[in-house]
Amino acid sequence: MSFDVFQYLATLAFLYLGVRLFLHYNFMFIHFMVNSPSVWNSKIEKPRLLIYLFCGGFMFLMYSFESPATELHFLLSLIRITTFVLAFTLVHYTWTSKFKNHFNPPKNNKKKPSENNFNIAISKDQLNTLYKELVRYDMVDETKTDSKDFIKVFLEDWDSHGSKVYFDLDGPSSREFYELFSKTFPNNSLTLKKFFETSRLIIRPDGKRYMYNTIKNAGSKTEFSKRTSDLSKVFSKFT
User: Fold this and answer.
1) Mean pLDDT of the residues in the chain
2) Are the CB atoms for 155 and 124 separated by under 8 Å?
3) Is residue 114 part of a domain?
4) Is it the case that residue 235 has pLDDT exceeding 70?
5) Which residue among 64, 117, 206, 223 has the highest number of C-beta atoms inside a 10 angstrom radius?
6) CB-based contacts of 165: which residues, under 8 Å, 6+ apart?
């Protein structure tokens, strides 16, 4: 690359960076003059201006430098051009989204899982199918728990509604339901205690809550419950 070509390209680089800087801050100035909400973000603008000042100074030095006509002329010219290009690249980087995200990372708007929720990865259609199968095999009292109640219990925060699930299952059968359910839909924050005791949403046929210790020990007393066959048929719909 000859000296003239370098000067020409360097001039274009200065114009590009200068015009971009002018338009950017002129836009901010107009907002300031018309009393619009400030668009100044110091987390981004201060690092950008610092890089502009530092790298722009290097670019100007390389632009103004004239290598002597000696044996080192080629090497000095190469260093000069390389330094200018690197400085330009860094200044240009300040206008990229990577630069903005580095100095001002986007907020993580992901909702933190609620402690008062089963946090189950399951759709309403799947829950509706499960409800119909449980009703079909007389495992849920549909006079006290309709499909809407059923879906609310499994998807919504426990204190955001008044719905409950009235099971028609004894201790071992309800324990087997829990194990099949948590195995079929493994993405959840279910625990045996949370499901039957803490939530206060799972009700026995007599209208009382299941006793955690009774459910906990149910699995050790019998390998299969009275409703093993029916429960297997219910959950076979999801395999």
Assistant:
1) 86
2) yes
3) no
4) yes
5) 117
6) 140, 145, 149, 150, 153, 201, 202, 203
Q: CB-based contacts of 22: which residues, under 8 Å, 6+ apart?
A: none
Q: Are residues 229 and 128 in the same domain?
A: yes
Cβ-based neighbour number of residue 188 at 10 Å: 18
Q: Are residues 174 and 204 in the same domain?
A: yes
Closest alpha carbon to 165 in 174, 10, 173 = 174
Q: In the Cβ-directed half-sphere of 149, how many Cα atoms lie within 13 Å? A: 16
Domain that holds residue 128: 124-238
pTM (whole model) above 0.85: no
202-203 and 165-166: which strand pairing?
Answer: parallel
If one counts the domains in the chain, the total is: 2
Judge whether 113 and 194 are in contact, CB under 8 Å: no
Nearest alpha carbon to residue 238 among 188, 195, 192, 181: 181
- Per-residue pLDDT of 153-185, as tens digits, reads 999 999 999 999 999 999 899 999 999 999 999
